[in-house]
Amino acid sequence: MPRPTGRVLTLLELLQSGGTRTVAELADRLGVEGRTVRRYVNQLIDLDVPVESVRGRYGGYRLGPGYRLPPLMLSDDEALAVLLGLVAGRRAGLTPTERTANETASAKIRRVLPRHIARRLDALLEALDFTDRSGESDHPDAGLLLTVADAVRHRRPVSIRYTDRDGRHSERTLHAYGIVAHAGRWYVTGKDAQVGEDRTFRLDRIADARALPGSFEAPVGPTPAQRVLSGFATAEYRHEVILRIHGTAEQIRARLPAAVASLEENESTDGEDRAAERWLRVELRAERLDWLPGVLASLDRPFVIERPAELRDLVIALADRLASCARRA
Fold this sequence. Notes:
This protein is of the alpha+beta class. It has 11 helices and 11 strands. It has a 5-stranded antiparallel β-sheet with strand order 6-5-4-3-7. Strands 9-10-8-11 form a 4-stranded antiparallel β-sheet. A two-stranded antiparallel ribbon has the order 1-2. The longest helix has 19 residues, at 309-327. It starts with a helix and ends with a helix. The relative contact order is 0.07.
């Protein structure tokens, strides 16, 4: 049976989870009577924990707002979940802080883990592997990330100093729609006020961000994530590829995701099942074409290459090589 001190700490943990807790609910969770709950509450108040009493039919106890609480308490499973999140975020390149901050946070939690939980964690980390490389790219500054996030939330313009992939520096006014984590990097998408068009910027290439006076209306239509993926698919590259593929959107997306290609359905009759196979127009841009024949072969769907002719020649060459290999004894 838990000791009274343990129950008092459990009571604090329940109150920290937020909202108002009735005496009956707390008594049931702690396995005690109502008057014992009140005694535990008084003990917390004696420790300067701001517990408020809420009167009425749905009254009970809650923590007062605006006070600094005692150190955060995590259960074993919660601590394990936080540690795994830190490890995964660091490996995937999605930790928006310096690597040192990630490692010191992990070390602080590990220090207080019970030995049997620490052994479980070590066993898991030894067995764990990732299909992508460890995140080695530059991470955005945490303060900058919070500034941009605040501008997104309150729909305020934000001034940024940006360096593009060619090393050109510029200062822009951005109406930021949202922040997106994709493939180990952080992006902000929004309207570039100077050119009046939507743009996507890598956060680690932003040197400075500051909120500006004013506000703007939230756009309708695609979500920030959809806008980022669409921007990747339509980025300026050497080759513009247009295909027609017979299949479902799901079949095509399995090999040509939204970050790579855009889909546009050809004319269809009213009442036609949109989940059925049909001819879909596929557009993408690529710096090189040599990877596309293999992707088209792996789709195993009928397709037509509208352009470029160079891609048609590459597909024919791949087909000839495959046929030659298949004929070998």
